[in-house]
Amino acid sequence: MQEIWERGLDWDSKLPEDLESKWKKWCAEIEVLGEVKLERCYFSRVVGKLDSVDVHIFSDASIVADGAVAYFRYVNLRGEVGMSFVMSKSRISPLKKLSLPRLELMGALIAARLRKYLSKVFCGLVDGVFLWADSEICLCWIKGSAREWKQFVSNRVPEIQDCTSPDRWKFCPGLENPADKLTRGENSHTLLNDSVWWQGPVWLRGSRNQWPRQKFERVTDEQKLEKLNTSVHSILPQREMILDEIKFSNLRKLLRVTTWVKRFVAKLRKDLREWNVECCRD
What we know:
Helix content: 40-55%
Protein name: Reverse transcriptase
Number of strands: 5
GO molecular function: RNA-directed DNA polymerase activity
Shape: elongated
InterPro entries: Retrotrans_Pao
Number of helices: 10
Order of helices and strands: HHEEEHEHHEHHHHH
Keywords: Nucleotidyltransferase, RNA-directed DNA polymerase, Transferase
């Protein structure tokens, strides 16, 4: 639909061959989605009483779309780990062209709102929430102060920080990010048997020391461009010059004239005060 809009086609216009081919392919793949089966119970992959339940939300973005996907990670008393798909949400990227880090930030915003929604739905069930993104620039914005960045970033970072704790955001390599399938698209037949999409990355089923870590932080050109440049200007009041010292030939004459002027001003102030007192008495 977005491509049709960009090309300026009317509602009754015949589709170009390339768009018609895409439409027919999409319709054919819709039928395959009827074969998707999800277990009604989230926690059926391990046996016994659960020791902990965490939510892991992955976000991603591309020039096509941005979105997020959420999973339950649960552990029983014997230390066995299970993963289950909870939900996903995506939207197409805006027509206005944005840089990839800005698109990643929009994906992170969806993840933050998803976290807020799931916290209400599963209130009291979830022990911890972890959010993952594969953009180091985006993570830097989220973990920093919103006042440091330009308007686009500073308008979105506060909402993300309100919905989530910045220290809960982690780095995930792009190739291991299941949300990548949301933003770049995947064939229905492939998605049907994609274990990463339905159960999350393999490393989540291991211990925490096996999870990816952000090895370093560096300031990139994109971050510099988003920095809000502020400048402070001080305005000093200008005093009106009563006497221009340049017009006097020597210092003694300047001091003598200055003395007489100050005496004159002092006398005027005294007379003015006395006049005000008399007016008040009358």
